[in-house]
Amino acid sequence: MSPKGRKDTPVPVMRRGFRSREMPVEKAKDVRNTVRRLWLYFGGQRWALASLAVLVVLGSLVGLTIPYLIGRAVDTIEALNGGLRPLSVVVFVLLIAYLVEALTSFGQNYVMAGVSQHVVLVLRRSVFAKLQTLPLSFFDQHTHGEIMSRIANDLDNVSSTVAQSAVHLMASLLTLGGSFIMMVMLSPALTVASLVTTPLVYAAGRAVTTQTRRLYRSQQAALGKLNGHVEEMVSGLLEVKAFNREKEAVESFAEINRALQDVGIRADIWSGFLMPIMNVISNLGFTAVAAVGGVLAVKGLITVGVIASFLSYSRQFVRPLNEVASIYNGLQSALASAERVFEIIDEEEEPGDEECAIELVNPSGEITFKDVSFAYIDRKTVLHDVSFHVPAGSSLAIVGATGSGKTTIINLLTRYYDVQQGQILVDGLDIRSYTKTSLRKNLGVVLQDTYLFAGTIADNIRYGRLDASIEEVVQAAKLARADGFIRRLPKGYDTELSESGSSLSHGQRQLLAIARAILADPSILILDEATSSVDTRTELGIQEALRALMKGRTSIIVAHRLSTIRDADQILLLDQGRVVEVGTHQELLAKQGAYYRLYTSQFSEVG
Amino acid sequence: MGFLRKYAPKYWKLFGAAIVFLVVESVCDLLQPTVMAQIIDIGVANRDLQVVLNLGALMLLITAIGAVCAVGRNILSSHVAHGVGADLRLDLFTKVQRLSLDGLSQFETASLITRLTNDVTQVQHFVYRLMRLFLRAPILGLGAAAMAIYLSPKMSTVLVVVLPAAALLVALNLRTAYPYFLRVQQAVDRVNQALREYLAGVRVVKAFNRAAYERNRFEEVNQDVSTAHVQAERVMAFFRPAIILSVNLGIAAVLWFGGLSARAGTMEIGKIIAFVNYLTQMLHAIMRIFFAFSIFIRARASAERITEVFEQEDPTPQVADGYKASLKGDISFYNVSFAYAGSTGEPILKDISFTCRPGETLGVIGSTGSGKSTLVNLIPRLYEPTAGRITIDGVDVTEWDPGHLRDQIGYVPQKSLLFTGTILDNIRWGRAGASLEEVRAAARVAQIDDFVMSLADGYDSLVGQGGVNLSGGQKQRLSIARALVKKPTVLILDDSTSALDAITEAELRSELFEFVEGVTCIIVSQRVTSIMNADKILVLDEGKIAGLGTHEELLRKCRVYQDIYYSQIGREEAV
């Protein structure tokens, strides 16, 4: 997903404040703050959370009694003379316990699904709303992939992990503590015997996970490298083929692939050690408990049932110990994800309107640039002291070499970026004194990169004015010379466009964008290279339409083709961010200056 | 997952060995509860410490053997899974590299990348889990059932009720949950699409003040994905406890009937405990199979997507001994027509015939969508014509060795793509062995040398992925330099100066004509001035040749060309 079609404003590769997602287990930088903020999102869910807590506690407690009940059952069976009644009571209670356990488990997951999805819904909504308020510089500085990854992957990570981990952590800790208490109550001596293996469990777990964590990290890095290579070689298949590089592409892929395979095998082998080792240790504990239990039973200190239930508890005690570690890691990475999402929410917003900003209503469209200078963040100055005046209803064509600052002028006029020095006036007032909404409403912009969304063609044109009737849509399309090709499509105006309109040619997409601007009926028209991909014959048609449209409107046109701009009332020649010449076509030709040279270089062949 | 069969011969030995380990491992697992039962029944019940210790030692031995086998099985299965994964990925990548552009266009780039990375990983994951879950769980489950029956055939009647009930629940769950998860996946796709659209169109959204509109549009998909998630999770929330409960009820039944038998003196307590343990093992096995199925479902979806790529036909059969010769640059089209595969509409090119002699310059002009790019793409055989014949130096293009042919054609595509690396690397992509001097010479012609030298690191400056840190014009010029450094015999410029201003373009053009003397040059452009000096100009209109001749000839008799010319130059100047 490379940013599309930017011409005048080369975008530096910058990852301000964004870290790569390559580490599998990352920690949030500020855990407390992240948890606190996340908690705010859970805030509206108090009742659900409370019932969730009750269910978790209930479930864990009932879970804890089950081994005890089994032990009791064993004991009542052993005490044959007790009759059937004690056994039936125990089994009955056990049945109820199982039922309650199942119900609480269902309840927990049921409530949790609602809670966590609600939080994600709200988070996603606020991130998207935030995106609407971010300045354009944010989108220029971060690749789409990065932003997408935060909203899709990170939010997903938050949704699937935070609530679940928290609940599991709570349940595990309860079980852990409860098991310990039950063990001590059943038999302190056996407790000591079973705890002998606990440090072993911990040590083994630690030894293995440090290895696996390191290896998974390098696996992730290798995967990242592979993904990068694949992305380039697939998007650039045309180049790969045209330059006969298939063999090299496959060879370097094979190399990266091999490295990934090696590290992957090692990581999986290491992580595979954990379970068998744990099994041996836990059976070691089992034998120890059975041996000590045997001794105690010989002495008549405990019953067989106690040993049976004790064994269950000691299992329950060891298992959550391992789980807690992995849940904790999961929680950490989820918090890191949440933090990355919050980073977007914390991004500085597009500066709002001035306090006493007024609405720009039906402007005459007079535009003045006064000594405007501008530099993109951390880059050299793009515009130096640019001044010009466009009287209401007249047209200005901006001409200049690549990188001379043409697009920047438009970025400033639309307030995508704000001037750093100087002033831009519309109808005699600084554009910062108008509300952004009203300013942009009066600017009809047709940009290089045409944005079409999934939807019908009519919907896409209607984007210019949402309440336009279908007749108005068709009228606009006719003016933009788009009606013809639209009608030739099998479904006409109801044709569904696929993502980014790829089913249409670039030129056709531009025609739709022009139709959209026509429909918006703005007072000021801005065309940024809008016709560069339309063939010249089609452009001729559009120009007729635009000429009619431009009548009575102020218009600023950025174009490379001189024929496009010759008719403009004024021509502004930019060179490296400075105004070199201003005047009409004839005046500038007569001057025999820079414009003259530009003009003759294009047409010298004509003779 | 038929494509996995291909890797069987290479890995079946390792796989077989892993299964042997697995069986031993499972047997060890199964023996544990029996030994445990004996510890309690013989050792503890009789208060015989020696038996407890002896049996304890035996159990530890069994566990240790089991552990060794588990480690061995894991080492083998890691090798198999990652081996298969890596082989599959390489095969898939090779396949993608060999796809024709027409075949490639059947897939979105992003989707191909996902297939190569995510989907292969899913399949690899599946292969890895195949042993641990798919084979071990049934062995354990069936083994536990067998041991339980062996322990007490009478009590095993409980199994007859419990196991089918659990199996039924698992089956029901899979059937009900699958469509829900499918819906989640679709909803997630829609959210991602909405996001992608927004990011691509952020300038327009701002220009038209459509923040609220976009928010509403997003909220719709946002709600959808949320609802789908909640529903799917709630279905799962029901089935999991239900399956566990069904087995647990079995445990209660065992205790009850076991108690009755013990009372009758036909059953020892240890056996009851062992029976309960076996039931628990069965429960675990069922839960694992349950889990395994969700992995299987995911892997199946991935496998289908991979298969789609493999099944994409490879229309450029690599000729074993294609024609190899040094190129002279004589290009002829004979009644060539072309339509994209799968497109139902009109062909893009209709009945195109022309000849271009060595050293000639051919200009191609025409309106958007008239087929200009397609036409030049046919020359280096990036696409295959649907009808007609193309010859280069009199040899049919399909008989040429494609690599050899492309090595001698310099091609500058319409959308120039640069690769991560230095500027030098990028220009050398044209010819790996080019010296810095040759690179600079090409860059000078392409009017980009001055710019590169103005950078702090000069030719060692890094280009971001896709050339994000360069402007469109800079990218175009670099990609021209990349084609020139090849010293090609045929040079194709596909509208590759569109982002350049007129002065730069004029300078480029004049130096280019010096540089490429003796080279057959095909220039596609929308600007008349770019091509009007060509030896021959081909005017395309809706896929057909509307005119072919010199500028003067066309200006006299070709309507389409006149229209284009006057629309750009203006009538008064021309007259």
Structure overview:
The complex is a heterodimer of chains A (607) and B (575). Chain A is α/β, with parallel strands linked by helices. Chain A has helices spanning 31-42, 46-78, 84-133, 136-141, 144-186, 188-195, 198-235, 237-242, 246-298, 304-346, 406-413, 436-441, 457-462, 470-479, 483-488, 506-520, 536-550, 562-565, 585-591, 594-603; strands at 367-375, 381-390, 395-400, 421-426, 429-430, 443-446, 455-456, 496-497, 524-528, 554-558, 570-575, 578-583. Chain A folds into four domains: 27-187 and 320-349, ABC transporter transmembrane region fold (Up-down Bundle), CATH 1.20.1560; 188-301; 363-442 and 525-535 and 554-607, P-loop containing nucleotide triphosphate hydrolases (Rossmann fold, 3-Layer(aba) Sandwich); 452-521, P-loop containing nucleotide triphosphate hydrolases (Rossmann fold, 3-Layer(aba) Sandwich). Chain A is 62% helix and 10% strand. The longest helix of chain A is centred in the middle third of the chain and has 53 residues, at 246-298. Residues 1-25 of chain A have low confidence and may be disordered. The longest helix of chain B has 54 residues, at 211-264. Chain B folds into four domains: 1-152, Up-down Bundle (ABC transporter transmembrane region fold), CATH 1.20.1560.10; 153-266; 328-408 and 488-575, P-loop containing nucleotide triphosphate hydrolases (Rossmann fold); 416-486, 3-Layer(aba) Sandwich (Rossmann fold), CATH 3.40.50. Chain B is built from 19 helices and twelve strands. The chains are: A alpha/beta (607), B alpha/beta (575). At the A-B interface, α2, α3, α5, α7 and α8 of A face α1, α2, α4, α5 and α6 of B.
Strand order of the largest sheet of chain A: 6-9-10-3-11-12
Give the domain tally of chain B.
4
* Mean pLDDT figure of chain B: 83
> How much of the residues of chain A is beta strand, in percent?
5-15%
Overall CATH architecture of the largest domain in chain B? 3-Layer(aba) Sandwich
Biggest interface between chains: A-B, 171 and 163 residues
Distance between the termini of chain A: 45 Å
CATH class of the largest domain in chain B: Alpha Beta
